Amino acid sequence: MASIFEPSLPTPDLSHLTRADYEHVYEPAEDTFLLLDALEKDAQELRQLKPQVCLEIGSGSGCVSSFLGALLPSSSALYLCTDINQHACRCTKATGSQNKVTLEPIIASLASPLQHRLANQIDILVFNPPYVPTTSDEADAAQVTSGISGAWAGGKSGMELTNILLSSVPKLLSPGGRFYLVGVVQNGVEEIRQRMRQAHGLDSEIVLERRAGRERLWVVKFFKAAAPS
Ligand SMILES: C[S@@+](CC[C@H](N)C(=O)[O-])C[C@H]1O[C@@H](n2cnc3c(N)ncnc32)[C@H](O)[C@@H]1O
Q1: pLDDT confidence of 5, banded at 50, 70, 90?
Q2: Is residue 197 within 8 Å of 145, Cβ to Cβ?
Q3: Residue identifier of the C-alpha nearest atom 24 of ligand 1
Q4: Residue 228 has pLDDT above 80, yes or no
Q5: Which of 64, 110, 156, 224 has its CA 20 to 30 A from that of 54?
Q6: Which of 24, 25, 26 to mutate to test the pocket of ligand 1 (most atoms within 8 A of CB)?
């Protein structure tokens, strides 16, 4: 009898990346893999969306966007990525090529150069942000130096950078678009969900939660609330 379960997709091939790359670029870890699992869990829903434009913010190694490309094999979607770290953008491009997915990395902060031209056009938006609570000074310095510390230094409650993006998500998402955000318990996921609902009319659902060492990670999905009938 045919199985109703699809076999799980392999993690993208990262064998071209070296120790030297990971001195500058975030090496995929439990948070990355939880995000892959969340996207895979929603594979059917994401395929049905027939996405045209995907955007990963903070693409790092390029592992997540390469996985997304493999998850949507027959789609002709554009896979845009941003990262403030130039080494991350180089690795993202290389990881796309290694996995036969055309990724278009842009050295930029958040969605800044795309904000207006891609207003209401992003079908799948993904962000595994620097979510570790640090001092604001540490987070600011990490943003200025655009190096490896930008992968984790999140400032107050680990939310300083993420909060900037959250307010622009409603403008970026297409009507049926989905936004996947990774975080840890210290970020306060219920407060984030409530704020997004009240201030921006976005509904949400926790897709996955997992303990990884000392971290309790979650992935939440936001989407525009259905208009009342
Ligand atoms: C936790 S890492 C995630 C990397 C990769 N997406 C993954 O899941 O393995 C966070 C990434 O965000 C990037 N980043 C930090 N600040 C950023 C900003 N203002 N705009 C875009 N990317 C940023 C970092 O350079 C880093 O690559």
Answers
A1: low
A2: no
A3: 151
A4: no
A5: 156
A6: 26
Pairing of strands 215-224, 103-107: unpaired
* pLDDT of 3: 45
Indicate whether 220 belongs to any domain: yes
Domain of 57, CATH number, reads: 3.40.50.150
Token pair for residue 16? 């071209």
- Say if CB 64 and CB 27 are below 8 A apart: no
Say which amino acid occupies 107: I
**Does 125 map to a domain?**
yes
pLDDT at position 74 over 90? no
Residue closest by Cα to atom 26 of ligand 1: 151
- Provide the residue range defining the domain that includes 190: 34-224
In tens, the pLDDT along 95-134 reads 999 999 999 999 999 999 999 999 999 999 999 999 999 9
For 205, the enclosing helix (H) or strand (E) is strand 202-212
Q: What's the burial of 59, exposed, middle or buried (CB within 10 Å: 0-12/13-18/19+)?
A: buried
Q: Which atom of ligand 1 is nearest to the CA of 82?
A: 21
Nearest CA owner, ligand 1 atom 7: 32
Instruction: Write out the two tokens for 6.
Output: 């699809």
